Structure prediction request, 1286 residues.
Amino acid sequence: MRTNPSLTAVPFTLVRLTDKFWAPRQAVNRRVTLPIEYEQCRVTGRIAAFRLAWKPGQPNRPHIFWDSDVAKWIETAAYSLQTHPDKQLERSVDKVIGLIAKAQQPDGYLNTYFTVVAPEKRWTNLADNHELYCAGHLMEAAVAYFHATGKRQFLDVMSRYADYIGQVFGRRPGQKRGYCGHEEIELALVKLFHATGERRYLELAQYFIDERGQEPNYFRLEREIRQLKDPAPRKSAHWDLSYYQAHQPVREQSQVVGHAVRAMYLYSGMADVAREATDPTLLPALRKLWQHLTQKHLYITGGIGSTRANEGFTFDYDLPNESAYCETCAAVGLVFWAHRMLQLTGASEFADVMERALFNGCLSGVSLDGRRFFYANPLAVYPAATRGAAGHVAGQRQPWFDCACCPPNLARLIASVGQYFYSENATTAAVHLYGQGETKLHVAQQTVRLQVTTEYPWSGAVKLRVTPERAARFTLALRIPDWCPSFTLFVNNKPVAVKPSQGYVRLTRTWRGGDSIRLMLAMPVLQIEANPQVRMNCGRVALQRGPIVYCFEQADNGPELNDLCLPPETRFIPVHRDRQLGGVTVLRSHAWRRQPQPWRNGSLYRNDPTPRHRVSITAVPYCVWGNRRPGEEMLVWLNRASS
Amino acid sequence: MRTNPSLTAVPFTLVRLTDKFWAPRQAVNRRVTLPIEYEQCRVTGRIAAFRLAWKPGQPNRPHIFWDSDVAKWIETAAYSLQTHPDKQLERSVDKVIGLIAKAQQPDGYLNTYFTVVAPEKRWTNLADNHELYCAGHLMEAAVAYFHATGKRQFLDVMSRYADYIGQVFGRRPGQKRGYCGHEEIELALVKLFHATGERRYLELAQYFIDERGQEPNYFRLEREIRQLKDPAPRKSAHWDLSYYQAHQPVREQSQVVGHAVRAMYLYSGMADVAREATDPTLLPALRKLWQHLTQKHLYITGGIGSTRANEGFTFDYDLPNESAYCETCAAVGLVFWAHRMLQLTGASEFADVMERALFNGCLSGVSLDGRRFFYANPLAVYPAATRGAAGHVAGQRQPWFDCACCPPNLARLIASVGQYFYSENATTAAVHLYGQGETKLHVAQQTVRLQVTTEYPWSGAVKLRVTPERAARFTLALRIPDWCPSFTLFVNNKPVAVKPSQGYVRLTRTWRGGDSIRLMLAMPVLQIEANPQVRMNCGRVALQRGPIVYCFEQADNGPELNDLCLPPETRFIPVHRDRQLGGVTVLRSHAWRRQPQPWRNGSLYRNDPTPRHRVSITAVPYCVWGNRRPGEEMLVWLNRASS
Prediction:
């Protein structure tokens, strides 16, 4: 039994979602996206690469991050197999795992690019070459597949690889004191530790985290060595240690910097090590980083990363809408980090951000039909400005990307989204997210069944039915989200007046079979302002209802969305539309728009105030934008006339 | 005598400005900027380059556009010598001209870079290498110096060079059917034609204009030849024929595209040829291009060029403020083009834009002390966003640039700004710009003295005193600017009711010595809206009074300028401040600003409308921004609460 007072996430295998929001997305993810991922890995040569048969001059030359794409497909498939057994899928995975196993080198090394394309470059450029990153994703996949099937082959392969990595890296004489330029292996090693019980993997994760940013700086040394060999190397666009979060030891870091996905994976790994190694020295840094991120660098969608230039953070309060990067992977990474902070602390501020990212900036990454993807998720799109831009920064979802990190990252998140809903420890079961379905909790030394009935996120009314095996005293902690201004609570139809602490109402009592809870979260339409230092959003508001952030699309509101202006005291009416966009609540109201007539002469500028007229406007959830008439305008932050 | 009914600009040598706006700027330009230009040309090796003594491995390797910087210094010096004789300056110029003359090759060729650095590349890359561009600037300088001093040496050198160019380029067998990737030589050849009377130079200009964009495309052919010799050439960032306005024959062009300075110089050359060769087929294209520029691509400051990427035009209505390029040279080029269109047509729409660029987007390019320069002239500056950026895109003026086109371009404009004020032909004298001073006009076959008394641009009251040699009937055309909603006019103290035609009130009468005119142009503070398709300015207004566009600076209004919001019905009070910023009229009013208190907890987002408080605000002329506390925020387009 865990003695750590922190919470443990209830695994998604025990969380059955039967709601109309996540369940259909999981089905599309499983039926459409997962096969597309496999097919893309196949046709691009990513799977064949493990045959190690590529020769110079042949097509489909392996790329340094290809292994990670196959790994994320396996990981997604593993999650899918856990909830929806599928022999054919399992056979496909087994075949690929067979290839992977054969690709492992005698010393345990396992990387297609550095085995067939550039074997002489093994471990020579940790900063940029994603070697340990690929290893990490393969480890995550191996752990997931082991959990799904009980088959040990892949897990053993990756344990061998991890053992080899543990020989190469460390502080002993003859070892490299390096770490990966793209963090990922840290959190993966903690998963490997959990799956195998081998503490050395946790210690290796700890080493990678502790060593990062120490002096003499490994990336700088590594670069000097490369330059000795090749005085005119390929210029790195990102030669800045903060890009890799390697500019100072992690415990001294207090500001989120550099590449956003890298940062999220590092902080996730730090949180894992903080918890598993019960290292109290990491949490203060994590709290500072969290505060910096959420107070100065977080888009309202839960997206992060303000520019394409470094795919990451710029300066405080710099949150441009049209040129936002907001990589899907970064929002996914934020969910990972927030989730870990939530288990460590039990504080709802982490669940609030996790929910924000999950329902908005992550989900926008995939079309409703599961076939098209955003890499960057801007908060405003003006089609002419994206014309010609394809791939990473596009005004509409793309079928795939050469650098294909995002689609499978989101797919593995959706396939396992149940794990973000509940946590538990010996005395408490916590409900972080509300979604219709049924869950098995382990609390008070027994299994407690929890049935949830709700239309969340479209309604704040939630019914919970608690069924312990036997009557028992424990705490049920229900999150009161940051967006909720007031709530009422009934236990067995009797009103309960209880104030939330750390963002949760805690119902501690002896629970018996058939006990029921009714939680009514007020879910008004919020007109959110950004901090005055966010210069691009001054005079603008964004709409949010429940966890859902809204946007305006050309399909509903015509073009020139920036010219819409909310009159003072505007109220929005939520209207549920079962048949639109997979079933969504839209927000309806009126706004002003300048009359076109005075501009018909083609003037670019005019002296007199243009008369305005009143127009109907409709906002749709940001997560489903671009699903009707792709290639049109979209806008999250709407101009408002100040009252 | 000219038979063309169009107007001829009155040369600046006949226009003495004694006002408080231009005269002090001309003095600083002459006393401070001109010596800085020379010194920069000297210390960087630009002047020494004409000794042709540079050897590989030595510092100060000549660059392809260096010759043009020296040329613009000579041109500016020549203008200065015309109004302010200065023996020492003249000796300096003579010395440099001596070097230039010696640098001329036996065949007439004259270019430092392609003589000492890459002689084998002569005429091999017209698209990118600025060879004919440099020739053009040297020709302009030679013409100016000839006018200033009567000395023919430089003019003869450049005539020889032009003759050589005329042998190399053309449609005869053995000639290259090329033209320059950076237009400039076209308008320069027309000046050379004027100075020498040699019509072949006009015909060469005509050839360059007619040949541009014809198929087979010269730049494409040239590139294919280069690629045959060097299969992996330096990748051109701008390989797009529209960048060079060479994507179609000029008469078929109807949209402004590509590099903004290039475009302005081309259109100026086209206007010159249209006029001098009395070619009626160019004007329709010029009118379409003008309409496209002014209706879809013109910043309110008269700046042009929406992005650093191509230093030029993007898509229609794309006028970002913070990332505006608005190169000083492009605004100068727009003045050139507008001025030529004005002479061709006599229509005030050209004077309106010329005035807008002159008083705003050009002048902002130099500090009041004449020592620092903007290359890009954005309409909003947020210091953190420009941190790290130096040189071309900077948040404050810089001492110089490696690519130093802008400072001397603006200097030659300021030195000769008088030429933009008046035009004349046999029967009409036109006043385009108002500025205190005295002018000699040639109209009705005599010299007419015109004395102007005004505080323009700070006041719209203008007194003109007309003194012909003898009483004579002619038309005095006075421009009623586009920003002026109403005016009153008195001739010899008697009110005159006359409607403007083509933007000018035309006073046709027998003028006698001592006749006086009083023109009172109403000069309200305009709150200008941009077309709803300019998405970045929706909900915002810019202030203009007379020809002066205003901006808000942090020095007057504190930081977070975007959070200022003009209440409905706001009025601005003009206040003249003699001792501030060289003597300017500022605009004072009040605005709302969100209270900081609700944000003190560090929130990035809040649900409730933040209370606002009323603050005093002050706007200063855009042309003088950044002269007090450089490195602060600046904003032209202010948020407005719609009424």
